[in-house]
Specification:
about 140 residues; alpha/beta; four-stranded mixed β-sheet; three-stranded mixed β-sheet
Length: about 140
Amino acid sequence: MASVKQVQITFDCAEPERVARFWCEVLGYVVPPPPEGFASWQEFDRSLPPERQGAAFACVDPNGVGPRLFFQRVPEGKVVKNRVHLDVRVGTGLVGEERLAALEAECARLVALGAARERTLLADGFDESCIWMLDIEGNDFCLD
């Protein structure tokens, strides 16, 4: 039985490059270099058939630790809450007011990038506080 070596997380979206660049800002990810033989992603994109232009984009962890994020254009919009979402871990090891302050600071930064705050879920004796948010196309994620 083969073991999994890497994981890629794929987002369905309307504007792949726009959503990818948002997540680059959120996570400190970068856009990888364009394919060999192309000076830029724009040049590569123009080489594709018209129906494939702008259909996909990706970003990667510059340290090679986190998973690659891939964004693909789909015709339908988001209809219901995601069954899988990202937890952006900004409060790891923090509790109480210190945790809430760290979450609130990051929430403010992400709202300025175009994210939307849904609600704060306060600590309940089992789980620590987190903030439920939406990215620029309405995909759920949490500040944890």
